[in-house]
Amino acid sequence: MQTRHFAGIASTAACVIASLAMPAIAQSQQSGPGRLPRADQLIAVPVGGTHVPAQKQPQTLKNPYEGDPVAIAQGRQLFTSMNCAGCHAPQGGGAMGPPLSDNEWIYGGEPGQIFMTIMQGRPNGMPSFASALPEESVWKLVAYVRTLSQQQAQEHPQKPMSKEPERESGKP
Fold first, then answer.
1. What pLDDT, in 10s, does the model give residues 14-44?
2. Using CA atoms, how far apart are residues 161 and 172, in angstroms rounded to an integer?
3. I want to staple 41 with a disulfide (CB 3.0 to 4.6 A). Which of 13, 37, 60, 129 is the partner?
């Protein structure tokens, strides 16, 4: 008789705990301003420019930390601590790995594409960091990496094309 009474109390307590946790779980799964993208949003991100055309235009994911100076500074610390510079050079100029400071990205330079590259890794050298970094940290790293190409553009602006090609040799 007592066992049945304790079982009833335990199941009632479990129901109360579950009902209290449900709003928090539902809220954490919602997407909105300031929230991290859901898995179903990330899976639709095209990788590079050679993807199979979709029936509809895939959505562009916005980095929740884009332009946030604190998050960018934290991303820079992650870039250093995770030894990204070992392959991509300290300022993202490229070494063993491709440069991150230009606008030519093998697997795409949009925030969602960079996120997926870091999380999944890429063939021929880029390891997956999905088990090493939480998604929030990866987004901060993406925010920092995107500033590298912006800095390069400011330091070395492209010259406008002249109508006549420049002659590099002295020959006509």
1. 444 444 444 444 444 444 456 787 777 777 6
2. 20
3. 37
Question: Partners of 17 in the beta sheet?
Answer: none
Q: What is the number of other CB atoms lying within 10 angstroms of the CB of residue 87?
A: 15
Do 129 and 120 meet the contact criterion of CB atoms below 8 Å apart?
no
For residue 29 the two structure tokens come to 């799964």
Biggest CA pair distance of the chain: 106
HSE-CB at 99 with a 13 A cutoff on CA atoms is: 10
CA distance 98 to 123: 13
Structure tokens at 117: 């590259």
pTM for the full model? 0.59
* Among the listed residues 56, 60, 32, 31, the one whose alpha carbon sits nearest the alpha carbon of residue 45: 60
